[in-house]
Amino acid sequence: RGTNGDDDGDDGVDALEGMRDSRLLARVRVAEARARGAVAMYGVEGRRAPAPAAARLAARARVDVWTDVQLPFDDDTSARFMNEYWQKKPLLIRGAIRDFKPPLDGNEIAGVACEEDSSARLFVRRGDDDASWEKTLGPFSEENLTSLPTDKPWSLIVNDLDSQVESIGDLLELFSCFPRWRIADIQASVSPDGGGVGPHTDHFDVFLLQAEGEKRWSVASNEAYWPDNDKAFVSDCAIRVLKEFTEDDSFVLVPGDMLYLPPKVAHNGVAVNSTPGVSVTLSIGFLAPTIDELVLSYTSQATEKVKGSRWSDPWLKPVEDIGAISAESVSFASEMLKRTYPKNDAEVARWFGCHVTARTGDEVEEEDSGGVSVEELLGEWEHSALVAREDLRFAFIDQVGDGSLKNALFFANGEYWDIASNAALKTARVISNRGDLYEEDTQTDACDFDEEALALVLKLFERGYIYFREEDEV
Question: Other CB atoms closer than 10 Å to residue 23's CB: what's the count?
């Protein structure tokens, strides 16, 4: 996801002003971006190789354009989008956010890339050869970002901004027609004119929201460019870039415009018309786990059912062929495997909720509150709302297809709780939906505190999964 470079030209340009004194400090309970890191950045327009004749003859599909729709989608627009476009074909939405003022500008995003816990990458094309792309992993120093080449295309990519900067995370409220567990993160790409990462394809859905400057996007729906076709990509390259790319359609996005791309649609984005600043694109990407990943995840937890069990064959009989495996042995092996199969949808729900809410990568830091009592929690709760940590995932399941789920399930950071009471389910809903949690949310219809709901809140608070919103965050 992000910017890509391939336009002709060779003018080096100033893109950002010098590094500012203050930096964005990512906290476990990120409240608001304090980033003021600015970096002097430069770039040059890239080059595009002519496409082969066969590719030029391929049928071209123009991208549909909406001009009278804004985020968030209303019910009718959501239904239309899901039916006509979701995982089917691209869509360009002009003015998806009118008069859009991004929470962070390119300067501040550069500051995030310098923070110790940032997830940042820098792509630079060092030469004319397609294989000359160079990838560097962050975090970066001021010197890294102030010494970028003035005659080469580059792009700075920063992931997980929604979990580091609350105001960036708030943009996800504009995508309320999608379940939150499906969204992977919000990524930013910062590029000078001509900067990018070349034409490529992805396995996931993405919304590309232009935040600053402008970017020319070219797209192509062509099986030859699918990400599983290794022959279509440049070999021995630090990033996956298509050898050849012929566009079906192209257009320039300005701030507030948004492009939706389903999986496997090839795309190439190039920063344009952004001098003396930069082009910034915010990418809202969706999870796309592979089937083998899901199977491995399920079998990993399912083996707990048979942990310590060993092969046992008291029914073994003398054999004539020492190389033969008997039908009885195969049947026994089959029965052993079947012991790990889910008996119903409720079992699958417990695993699946844990899988999609678990954090990957670095281990999640839990904050020890030192053992808070219910009385202490309620005393503080009178003055402030509880909110969920931005860097964790929460979800709930209150029904399954085969009706086998007796109680609702609440998931937080790869763990689950059985939920029986209505008040506890309401608490789980508020937290999972990223709302402000108040005392009354944990009360019964008779306005008494619900013990199950309070116990859940206390456990989550003790672990640091939820926290009290500070006054300056409102």
Answer: 18
> Which among 154, 135, 136, 134 is positioned nearest to 46, based on CA atoms?
154
**Residue 417 bridge partners (DSSP):** 410
Q: Please tell me the distance from the alpha carbon of residue 150 to that of residue 129, in angstroms, as a whole number.
A: 18
Stated pTM of the model: 0.83
**DSSP-derived pairing of the beta strands 91-93 and 64-66:** parallel
pLDDT at residue number 19: 37
Dmax (CA) for the chain in angstroms is: 84
Going by C-alpha positions, the residue among 227, 208, 206 that lies closest to residue 217 is 208
What would the 3-class secondary structure string for 413-471 be?
A: CCEEEEECCHHHHHHHHHHHCCCCECHHHHECCCCCECHHHHHHHHHHHHCCCEEECCH
- 321: amino acid identity, one letter: D
CB 31 within 8 A of CB 470: yes
Quote helix, strand, coil % in the chain, to nearest 5: 30, 20, 50
Please give the pLDDT value at position 275: 83
List of residues 6+ apart from 302 with CB closer than 8 A:
340, 341, 342, 351
How far is CA 359 from each of CA 28, 211, 365, rounded to the nearest angstrom? 14, 27, 11
Q: Which two tokens stand for residue 402?
A: 């085969």
Tell me which of 14 and 148 has the higher pLDDT. 148
Q: Identify whether the C-beta of residue 191 lies closer than 8 Å to the C-beta of residue 3.
A: yes
The pLDDT of 250-256, averaged and rounded, is 98
- Mind giving me the DSSP string for 358-406? SPPSSPPPPPP-S---HHHHHHHHTT--EEE-TTS-EEEE---TTS---
